[in-house]
Amino acid sequence: MTTLLTNTLSEPASSTVSIGCAARALAGEQRRQLAVQVLARTEPVTELAERHQVSRKFLYQQADKGAQALEQAFEPAAAVDDEEVLFYLPVTKAWLRQVVLGLLLLCHSSFRGVIAFFHDLLDHPIALGTVHNIVQEAVVEARRINAHQDLSRVRASSHDELFQGRQPVLVGIDLDSTYCYLLVPEAHRDAETWAVHLLDLADHGLHPEYTVADGGQGLRAGQALAWPEVPGDRDVFHGLQPLTRLVVSLETRA
After folding, report:
1. Is residue 37 part of a domain?
2. SS3 (DSSP) at 53
3. Rounded CA gap, 45 and 37, in Å?
4. Alpha-carbon distance 174 to 200, whole Å?
5. By CB distance 3.0 to 4.6 Å, which of 192, 212, 229, 235 could disulfide with 158?
6. Which uninterrupted H or E stretch holds 21?
7. Looking at the predicted structure, is the pLDDT value of residue 214 above 60?
8. Is residue 78 part of a domain?
9. What pLDDT is attached to residue 74?
10. pTM for this structure?
11. CA–CA dist 65, 63 (Å, integer)
12. What CATH number is associated with residue 185?
């Protein structure tokens, strides 16, 4: 009697253990397939459980996960919350210096515009002298980098004279990449001044196939002194500018 009772009680426990082991042994792909089969109702859940040696409760659990995934997949997109935090920035002194230079060089802001940006958007004070000091530190670093620039790959150059107030600024760029390799204020823009800078650039490997410039006498005379073998083409801007004004005037009158 005792032996019979023991065997009767132990059989369900052994079956439960085997079912639990079979369920735990199923991989994610197999669980997904079972969930799809239950949701599709291609066969009774009881037969599906017996064939895979799992319980009906386990199959219903997988089907519930699959149903939730389907609901999430076909839910309408939630409205974008403008107040939702997208990301955080580690604000350091180095980052603030980058912001100052970015506003000045990329956004062409004035010094006082930088101060207004810091006050209105960052709620952080910054003095006019601090902005000036950041720029001067960047100038020193830029000069150090420029002292080692390699200009041997520049094929076509363009030179011009800009003015900061009444002070001339000599400018040189690579026409293919628009890289600015010369940007220096000078007291004069005569031939000797241009020749000195062009010779310095030649020491960095600048030997263009040709240059493009306007009809500035000092600029062209300086190139003739420094690079007599390099042809200098005339730009089309100074020819197109008066013609464009004339065309617009005639079209307006017409």
Report:
1. yes
2. coil
3. 9
4. 16
5. 212
6. helix 2-25
7. yes
8. no
9. 83
10. 0.54
11. 5
12. 3.30.420.10
CA distance 212 to 215: 10
> Residue 2: what pLDDT?
42
Cα distances (Å, whole numbers) of residue 195 to 23, 44, 89, 226 = 85, 93, 48, 5
Q: What angle do CA 79, 84, 89 make, to 5 degrees?
A: 145
For 148, the token pair is 């080692």
**Residue whose pair of structure tokens reads 């939630």 in the numeric block:** 78
Q: Are residues 166 and 136 in the same domain?
A: no
Domain count, the chain: 3
| Burial of residue 38, with CB atoms counted within 10 A of its CB: 0-12 exposed, 13-18 middle, 19 or more buried | buried
Query: Domain of 107?
Result: 93-146
Mean pLDDT confidence for 123-130: 96
- pLDDT score recorded for residue 208: 96
pLDDT single digits (tens) 37-76? 888 888 888 888 888 888 888 888 888 988 888 888 887 7
Tokens of 42: 């291609």
**161: β partners:** 170
Residues 6+ apart with CB under 8 A from 131: 100, 104, 111, 114, 115
Residues 18 and 58 in one domain: yes
In the block, tokens 């980058």 appear at 98
Distance (Å, rounded) from C-alpha 78 to C-alpha 149? 51
State in Å, rounded, how far the first CA of the chain is from the last one: 121
> Helix or strand or coil: residue 14?
helix
